[in-house]
Amino acid sequence: MFRGRPWPKECFLNSLFRQPNVTTLLNFPTNNSLLLPLISSRSISCRSKRLGSKLRERDDEKQFSDAGFWHDLRLRSDLNQAYSPTGANLQEPQLSEISPDSANSELESTLSTSLSFSRKAGDRQRGRIRGRAINQRRNPRRFWKLDPWKFKPTKTEYLLDTLHKFVHNPSNGSSRQWTLAARKPDDPLMTPLIKPRRSTYKSTQRISLQEALADYIYDVDRHLNQENGPRKSDSSAPENISTESAVDVGLRNFSRRGFYNYLHRRFYSTADLTTWAWVLKSPTPYRAILRLLAVENQDRTRNGIFFRSVPPFIPLLLLRQSLDSRAFRLLLPYCLSLISGQPLPPPEAYEKATAGDISLEDAPLESLRPLIPPNMCITFAIRLLHHARQLLPQAQVPIARALTTYLEAVKSEGQNSVSKPTLRNLRLMIQGLNTVLRSLSLPCRLRPFASIPIQQEAQFEILKAMAKNQPVLPVTRRGYQGIIAVQLAHNKTQAERQWAELKAPSWPPWKQEKLGIDAQRGFEGMRSRALRVMHQMHKAGYNHSLWEHVYRIYAGWDTDQSPTIQVRTLARQPWFLRKPVEKVTHHAVWEARIRATRTVHEAWACFLSYQDLGLPPRAKIYVAMAEKLIYSGICTNNLDQASHALPGDRLEVFPEPSSARDLIYVHTQPLKMDEFLKQMLSHGFRPRGRFLALLLRNAPSFASGLDYLSCSDLSDEQLKALCTLWRQESTHSHDAVRAVNEIPDSLFSAFIAFLCKFSSLDGKWARHVHHLDAFPIILGHWSMAPFKTKTLFSYATGKGGNDGDRHPDFLKHAIRLLMMRRSQSPQPWDCVLTAVSKNRISRFLQHQIGLHTQIVLSWYESLEVLDLMNDRKIETSTQGFRTLCNLFSKLMVAQRQHPEAVQRALHLVARAAQSGALVHADLRYLHFAHVAPRGLETLKGLFDQIVVSGSRSSSVFGPWRTASEGASESLPDLLYVPAPVDLHALVRSLGSADDFDGLLRLLRWMSRYELAIQEISDRYMNGARMKRLTVVAIRVFLEGDLRGESWESLGRMRSAHGQSEIGSSDGTSPEPNAGMLPDNQVLGEAYDIVTASDVWGPWPSDEEVEDYCQVHRKEHRVL
């Protein structure tokens, strides 16, 4: 009976605890005893009941740990009941995808077994088992690496195995050696070698530097005891004697294998082997890079600027690992000099690389001395490009230029060169450069579309070098496909936009002349740039494969020569569509047709046409149609009539034509989302990957999101780890941590966003939850509710409405999941920052905690989240920076309008810090006068970290040098060029805190880099508008027009708190410009900077200022 309640008993407050009013708590001193739970006399005599409740808690925890519990729970989902496990298998499998024997065995096993959500069983889709169930390694280069008897190691893998076994052996209590780990902690590169495999390698392979180093580590270096601390005292003399004898024996064994002669021929010695082992035995890759650079810099003065005392396979091994931004920027100049054949960079070059300058000095072509062969050069470029896509997209252009320098050096034949222009080397360069062209088309980790112009510039550098070479190096199919992929993701040109505007609202969208002048316009934009590259590829002699036919539809023209909608998309890799299948019936063609539409009815007509042809159902077809249904709701709610976006520029679906004659006819209307998902599940296709992430981000209710998870392809272990709210963090098992870390970053970020979306205190739970629980970071330790182990399903009561199932426990659970995960992605943390910055208590309940108090608590909780990110070395993204800027602006308005409420909230924050709830808070600065200075310091530091990588010499708000002082120096490249929306958020933060000096410094910096900002602004549809709003905001805050009567309120605020309160406890004072009117000199300099610039000028007019103030004064009145 109790389990059937719509509101579970476990989520209610215990009546034994008093719920004091928050406004009362704010006025009590620090030693207030009312913050502790009050135990009634009746509770003293009820020890047996409490003992029984503890036993029931233990039973619940055992129940939640049972796999059958989660299996039964998932089966209760309405969507899951529509799933047919044999729906996909009953379709005729393609012979190219699976053999007949395996298909028959799979079909029989599927029909004979019950529904299972285990990762080992997997979903049978398209007649095959998921590849992850067969192979536990992520994308291995050779599948027989898993078999220790069939594994044939390379030279580097032989060295890796030696390091793993004899340097950092986990069985000895030390952590896994970083050289054996791939780019993810739980992704080992290889299976440890057994003794017969090592013996076979030594007897069949030629001697190499890797083998010499591996045997030296085994025979000699591991006995030197250099990394395990100093040797023992005299009491352990026999041990020292045995260690020295082991070293002597190891040297004799090492000398018998002929390594001394081999090293002498390569101009090396055993001292070099000791140095290389010292580098590879570093505890982290960053420490290894520092040691490598120290060795090279020491030998630079001894052996000349071109000498490399460290062989190239060691930096290649470093590039094989997972690097952070600091380590990559340190290693990048060294690798670029190695590729281009230029001299070793001086030590100052690495400091500039950390600050943002990653270019090398130009050297004459005659002085270039490439020291690596072409195949190793291409390997360097591929691995550098991978890290650049993950960490620093701007580095792709210098990498491409270094590669072109190597190509120029190959043409100049020399006696000491290892890369002579032989036929074999030219063939390797042709294959390698086309591979680089394809690698330059892969999407970057963050802001992939914003990095497309950088990748295009890098591709142009490669193409120009190939065209200038004698003989001309041809572009192969792989290179053409890389160029096409970049052009597909690029913005439309002006001619392409004009062609898109002339398309008729009917289908197919042929050209429609709307004005008389349209008849005189040519067809310049009829063929997009991607389509022209395809035409050039066909002229070069390459027939179009299925990949070209599919992306021709995205480029604007169907296979039957009818027009479609030119869609900006990230192309799939060609090997996904390399099979010679009929282009009309392949499901990828119909998937592209569904995506290359404008409205839901156009996409639904393509979907029905695919079904009418009698073709087998495919998961990709359903996913494409489902995305149209999801984005149609976004279009209805967030359609911006003033937007300049055209169909294909964004994911949102456009509305149906207003005229009935332009409507496309469909014999059935589009289904609702739940009905469509049931149809998809009935064919055996479960939501997975990015589609599941899209469903979670756009879930209309909390119950709907849980239904999506129940019918997904997640295993029971992963669902249990995500949906179980444990009573304490220590109860997290190793299996739960492993399951959370196995989830892809995109899906995990979507789940965190889903939790944060419903984490406010509103709806039906508001009367059952104390308002202190809405702020778990600051006030969580004062929670009045006993927290028990439960599941997220106990909070879901229905699918109606967005405000039905909201609870602050979801935010607490999201933070705990982030603490369990080892990913470095900032996206889930951005979701938490966004949730923390919002008002979490509805306006009907603000008599308990006022809006201004909520803003103060949200600000300090955001700072705590920011410190947690810094502890895990997770860089703040631009979205997180804008969130903090907007919250700080609200904080300044609240401080100005209601200083008493802010003062009471600060007192509560200080008490939370004293109790240990805020680990990173400094009690010295939790005063009214330090709110603005400390907040500005945080925001300025974040802006420097994002834009200029934290270098003091290039700091935006640091010491300013005049133009004459810095004229002789080249400006460093920016780590990230901020978009106008980022600048506008920062201007509002500085202006709301009356930091006029900061506004002036920012304006100087904006004028200094105005061309780079203008280039970024042109890539956004609203770039020009936001850029203009930034300048208008600068004038508004410098002149004080936005505040109006707030100058008088500022005086009341100062008189209320007095001069003594404004000073700090440690004698320091806030910034001198805080709360003061700007003088005429500041305003005059700002006027001169704006009017002298073609990018930022002219000076904003009075009408622009008035319009800006009318919009933003409404926000202040809301507060």
TrEMBL record:
Domain of life of the native organism: Eukaryota
Composition bias type Polar residues, residue spans: 1057-1071
Stretches the record annotates as Disordered: 84-103, 1053-1078
Protein name: Uncharacterized protein
Organism: Aspergillus tanneri
